[in-house]
Amino acid sequence: MKTLKLSFLTIFAIVSNLLFATGCWKEISAGGSHTVAIKNDGTLWAWGYNSNGQLGDGTTVDKNTPVQIGTDTDWNFVNASTGNHSLAIKTDGTLWAWGYNSDGQLGDGTTVQRNTPIQIGSDNNWSSISGGSNFSAAIKTDGTLWTWGSDANGELGNGSIAATTIPQQVGTNWEYVSTGQYFILGLKTNGTLWAWGKNNEGQLGVGTTVSKTIPTQIGTENKWSSIAAGGGHCIATKSNGTLYSWGDNSVGQLGVESTADKLVPTQVGSATYWTGIYAGGYTSFAFKTDNNLYACGAGAYGQMGNGTNTSTNTSF
Predict the structure, then answer these.
(1) 286-293, Cβ contacts within 8 angstroms, sequence gap of 24 or more
(2) What is the pLDDT of residues 67-94, one digit of tens each?
């Protein structure tokens, strides 16, 4: 889990050199259209699209420079969802959320939009968070997974398609989860890989395009070490440093030298030295042990960072 976090920070630093030149940032998360970050002093900052209060500054006005959110100095982890809400954990282990709440994705028991951070429940043992389009997931220090919000595609993993406005437990022994747009990819403490939710492009990696309403194991291997879910695709590494991808490949985001979707994890090349990964909506990034950054997928807006505006399926 730490490797994933550091990889994301490094990626964002590369594309935002000016912002990070001061060296005062410790945690950052870029969502669909907004960004939230924590400075080394524990203060919370946000910028970008703010139509639903997802920045948390008490307004719905967009911001094109970082604005401080409140005055608290005990923020520890933060996540900007692929939708229009944000999640955070404080140093005391409490969980907080703000922004759009049409499906209960904030987890406060209501569907009322919040434009400032609001505490979710009273538990103080939350350890990691991830927000999808209109749902959320979080893991506690005891390894239990909790989900809430929209469940139209089974993304909550509780066997139904009924939304819930408060966190509900989904199994135990979870190490890390990564939310796609309408699905969740999960890694258990025993190294096994699981997924559930929308599966129209094979993003669950189970060999079909049938959606799943409960966590479904991907294969039988127990050597997975890191995971990242994009809009409709996934990438993951194994403990031997090999890289795999599957799901939507419409713009080459799987890095397998084609644009054909993959319904099961497919190895990307033969290298055994991948150390960090990150998946965007239609892009994938990965680091090798030489600290070089590689990318593939959509490039129409320069998101590959390679000096072109062209999509690529071969950068890995």
Answers:
(1) 286/235, 286/243, 286/255, 286/316, 287/7, 287/10, 289/241, 293/10, 293/11, 293/14
(2) 999 999 999 999 999 999 999 999 999 9
